[in-house]
Amino acid sequence: MVKMTHKSVLSFSSYCSYSSRRGMPFLHSTPLVALFHSQSSNPTKSGETHRGVSNVEDALKVFDEMLQRRPLPSVVRFTQVLAPLVKLKHYPTVLSLNSQMLLSGIRPNHYTLNITINCYCRLNRMDYALSVLAHFFKLGLQPNVATLNTLIHGFVLQNRVADAARVFRKMVVGGHCQPNTITFSTLIKGFCAVRNNTAAIHLLHKMEEYGCQPNIITFNTIIDSLGKDTLVDEAKNLFSEMVGRGIAPDLVTYTSLIQGLCNLGQWKEVTRLLYEIASQDIFPDVFTFSILVDAFCKDGMVVQAKNVVQIMIQRGIEPNTITYSSLMDGHCLRGEMDKAKQVLDLMVTKGSMVNVQSFNILINGYCKQKKIDKAYKIFKEMPLRGLVPDTVTYTTLIDGFCKAGRLQEAEKLFSEMQDHGQLPNIQTYNVILDGLCNNQQLSEAIELLREMEGNKLKPNVVTYTIVIEGLCNAGEVQSAKDLFCGLSPKGVQPDVRTYTIMISGLCKGGLLVEAEEMLREMEQKGCSPNGCTYNTIIRGYINHNDTSRATSLIEEMSERGFSGDASTMELIVDLLSKDTVDPVLLAWLKDKV
Q1: Of 5, 176, 348, 482, whose CA is between 20 and 30 Å from 121?
Q2: Torsion (CA) 268, 269, 275, 280 in degrees, nearest 10
């Protein structure tokens, strides 16, 4: 691992000088930390270059020379030129050279065809990859397990896991070639990528039926997926199964478990795992440490996060962009913007470490603290650092201007982003629409909505809900109703928030019968009302002096496990303080008491 200079250590130490020594015990002067400091660092070996062909120019030269020879070299020799190019990810070049081989009458073999399939898969052309299978049969060859593994991997790369599973089933049913460990591990990776952990575990336990033994990669893939889904108990069970099979966990295994535990805030268990790692002479790397830093920061424990960074530096492990960005985000979440800016400045002094996301974090922090001018100043610094603001940068800053009521500057930035080649996304439009509606510029909001509907970027339910709320707040309930009624024909299904906002608008307009009809309609359409929906319509009835109906809905709300919020309870207390109280409300209260 790269050792930090003395100056770098001092830079971070000066930043940390104000931090307290309180926090998690394993991050201070404990036997665990002492054990970590006593271990020797193992520098990672630099990657070896490909033997033979090391670049495209060499490959083309060798290939052309081979084509000039008579007799022509064997397909094996040509394939030896193609294989390194695949590793160098020059897939179109490989396909072009393969075409020249065919035109020269060189008969492909299994390996050549598998290379071709792999290149098409990497270029997201699964249709062409599948068409190569016809060449196998035309040449009297049978696709082997490597062929089908390549196809499965191609589908997995595109998240077409159902198609990958179909190829797998054909392998099993056809019996022409048996799946191997790579087959299972690739498909398991696909299931985990689409968060189908159940299917992944089921496939894991099927491996032995086909004479395949899961390896550490197979287990790590599922444990990592379970950890990310906070299914830590299941991950620990799989960990125990792996150890029971005699497979020793590695740093990847432990890091996956640590991430899952961190996501749940189970710090004692994290500490236990760190002790276990240390006892096996496994030391966390920058990725493991960055997970700890990020988790601490998200829990508001920035002091502990900084202690982790200190340990990294003392161990000669250079914190990376992710580490420092997480630390900066932690300060932003706590409103400690000066400290967040110090982290960014530290990253800038390290040269290439700072990136667009780092600036986005700080800009977002300033916007959340309503320090929009400081956010804009950071934004203007980006080009000076050779960084191009992206859609997230612009959207965050536009949102900040809108929330500050500075709509003209937001609209100027909205135009500027497009002039600079950054296309606004749904979130950008939603932010602008929200700003327009909150600043009573409804005609401009409607115009922008129509512009969206005319573009390829289709509005979503959030977009329409923003405009419906703006119309309701402005008292334009009929326009809101018209817009609401047009959602289903557009293929947009209102969610509970859309219904609740519409019900609120109807209540404010005195259209209580329509409001309750909508309450019943939403359930019929599979959208169950929540506590906010009930409180909204109950307040509507109370404000229009229909206490009996309000009481009936209060009862219904209670039966569904919801309770009155502060605003509703305040109205009920006001009713009870009057000289005459509705007998239905009194009867309900007596029944409850």
Answers
A1: 176
A2: 180
Q: Which two tokens mark 98?
A: 């393969």
- Each residue's pLDDT tens digit, 440-449: 899 999 999 9
Closest CA to 87 of 63, 51, 130, 61: 51
The token pair at 161 is 């896991």
pLDDT in tens, 508-539: 999 999 999 999 999 899 999 999 999 999 99
**Which of these ranges, 370-384, 477-491, 492-506, 542-556, has the smallest mean pLDDT?**
542-556
Per-residue DSSP letter, 439: T
Distance, C-alpha 278 to centroid of its chain: 31
**What is the predicted pLDDT for the residue at 591?**
60
List of long-range contacts for 421-424, beta carbons under 8 Å, 24+ apart: 422/389, 422/390, 422/391, 422/394, 423/391, 424/391, 424/394, 424/395, 424/457
pLDDT cut 90: percent of the chain above it: 54
What one-character DSSP code corresponds to residue 527?
A: -
* Distance in angstroms (rounded) separating the CA atoms of residues 564 and 536: 10
Which one-letter amino acid corresponds to residue 299? Answer: D
End-to-end CA gap in the chain = 69
Q: Using alpha carbons, list the distances in angstroms from residue 251 to 26, 141, 449.
A: 18, 42, 50
**Residues 512, 515: Cα–Cα separation, whole Å:** 5
Q: Is 67 helix (H, G, I), strand (E, B) or coil?
A: helix
Q: Is the omega angle on the peptide bond into residue 71 within 30 degrees of 0, that is, cis?
A: yes
Token pair, residue 476, equals: 């334009």
- pLDDT class for 379, splitting at 50, 70, 90? very high
Structure tokens at 398: 């536009």
How far apart, in Å, are the Cα atoms of 511 and each of 130, 336, 526, 568, 582? Answer: 60, 47, 23, 19, 22
Q: Which residues are within 8 A (CB) of 467 and not within 5 positions of it... i.e. 6 or more apart?
A: 433, 437, 445, 446, 449, 483
CA distance 42 to 134: 49
- Rounded-to-integer distance, Cα 544 and Cα 287, Å: 59
Q: How far apart are CA 365 and CA 333, in angstroms?
A: 7
CB 384 within 8 A of CB 368: no
Angle CA 271–256–221, to nearest 5: 155
pTM, rounded to two decimals? 0.74
Count the neighbouring beta carbons within 10 Å of the beta carbon of residue 569: 12
Distance (Å, whole) CA 251 – CA 277: 8
Handedness of CA 203, 208, 212, 218 (dihedral sign): positive
Nearest-angstrom CA–CA distance, 20 and 6: 23
Closest CA to 541 of 574, 566, 493, 508: 508
